[in-house]
UniProtKB/TrEMBL annotation:
<dbReference type="InterPro" id="IPR010237">
    <property type="entry name" value="Pyr-5-nucltdase"/>
</dbReference>
<dbReference type="Pfam" id="PF00702">
    <property type="entry name" value="Hydrolase"/>
</dbReference>
<protein>
    <submittedName>
        <fullName>Hydrolase of the HAD superfamily</fullName>
    </submittedName>
</protein>
<dbReference type="InterPro" id="IPR023214">
    <property type="entry name" value="HAD_sf"/>
</dbReference>
<dbReference type="GO" id="GO:0016787">
    <property type="term" value="F:hydrolase activity"/>
</dbReference>
<dbReference type="InterPro" id="IPR006439">
    <property type="entry name" value="HAD-SF_hydro_IA"/>
</dbReference>
<keyword id="KW-0378">Hydrolase</keyword>
<dbReference type="InterPro" id="IPR036412">
    <property type="entry name" value="HAD-like_sf"/>
</dbReference>
C-alpha cells in the first residue's frame, strides 16, 4: 500500500497517465460523518419492515445481511422476494440532502483533473444528481452510471465494472477508482485501475458493519486517504508542476 490514512502526497507517477477519474458517491464524494447515507439506511429498513411484516430489529438484520451478501439490499430483495426495483429506489432515496455542504476545495480539484470524470454508484441517478448539486460538482462529470444503468447488478460484481468501462470507452490502465469500501476496489485493481480508498477521519468513530472495514490492508488498495479534497489537490498541483517544470 502506497500511503497512510492521512492527507498525503500521492505518488504522481501512478496518476500521470490517468485519463478517467471514477468516483463512488455515498461516503466517498462527501464524508461519512455527514450521515446522509444513514437516512437512506433507515428508509431501507422501513421498506423491508413493511414489505415482509417484520419487527424493526429483524428487518434491520435482514437488510444488513442482504447488503453484505448481495452488494445492495435491493439485490437481495429482488433475488429472494422478486420485488420490482422502481418503488424501492424512489422510496429509499426520498431524503433530506441538505446535510451535504458545498465543498469548494473538492469541486475545484475535480475540475482541474486532467481527462474525464465519472460517477459509478450503487444508488440512483436522481440521488447522485442531488448530492452533486449540493457539493457543486454537477457540471464536471462525463457520466453518472447508476444502479439502473448497471441492470440492477451492484458493485462489486465484475459485470458492472465491465459494463461501465465498455459504455464509456474507458481503458482500465488509464483510470483511477475512488471508493469507501475496500471490497469494491478488488475488481478495479485486477483490471489495472489505480485504486484509492477513502476512509473516515482518524478522530471519527467508525459507525459501520465490521465487514465494511475489512480489506483495507489488502494489496488491491494503492492509496488510502481520509480527506478526498486534500488528496486530489495534491494530485492536480503535482501534475501541474510536472507540466510546467
Amino acid at each position: 500500500m502506497t500511503s497512510a490514512p492521512l492527507p498525503n502526497e500521492p505518488d504522481l507517477a501512478r496518476f500521470a497517465g490517468v485519463k478517467a477519474w471514477v468516483f463512488d458517491l455515498d461516503n466517498t464524494l462527501y464524508p461519512r460523518h455527514t450521515n446522509l447515507f444513514a437516512q437512506v439506511d433507515v428508509r431501507i429498513r422501513d421498506y423491508v419492515q413493511r414489505l415482509l411484516s417484520l419487527p424493526a430489529d429483524e428487518a434491520q438484520l435482514l437488510q444488513r445481511d442482504y447488503y453484505r451478501r448481495y452488494g445492495t439490499t435491493l439485490r437481495g430483495l429482488m433475488l429472494e422476494h422478486r420485488i420490482a426495483p422502481d418503488d424501492f429506489l424512489e422510496y429509499v432515496h426520498d431524503i433530506d440532502h441538505s446535510a451535504v455542504a458545498p465543498d469548494p476545495q473538492l469541486a475545484a480539484a475535480i475540475t482541474r483533473l486532467p481527462g474525464k470524470r465519472y460517477i459509478l454508484t450503487n444508488g440512483s441517478r436522481a440521488h447522485a444528481e442531488k448530492v452533486m448539486e449540493r457539493l457543486g460538482l454537477q457540471p464536471d462529470f462525463e457520466d453518472i452510471f447508476d444502479i439502473v444503468r448497471a441492470d440492477l447488478v451492484p458493485k462489486p460484481h465484475a459485470d458492472t465494472y465491465d459494463r461501465f468501462l465498455a459504455e464509456n470507452g474507458i481503458a482500465p490502465g488509464e483510470a483511477a477508482m475512488f471508493e469507501d469500501l475496500a471490497r469494491n476496489l478488488e475488481v478495479p485493481k485486477t483490471l489495472g485501475m489505480a485504486t484509492v480508498l477513502v476512509v473516515p477521519r482518524g478522530t471519527e468513530p467508525i459507525l459501520a458493519e465490521a465487514w465494511e472495514t475489512e480489506g483495507r490492508e489488502g494489496a488491491h488498495i494503492d492509496f488510502i486517504t481520509d480527506h478526498l479534497g486534500d488528496f486530489l489537490t495534491s494530485i492536480v498541483d503535482g501534475l501541474a508542476a510536472r507540466t510546467t517544470g
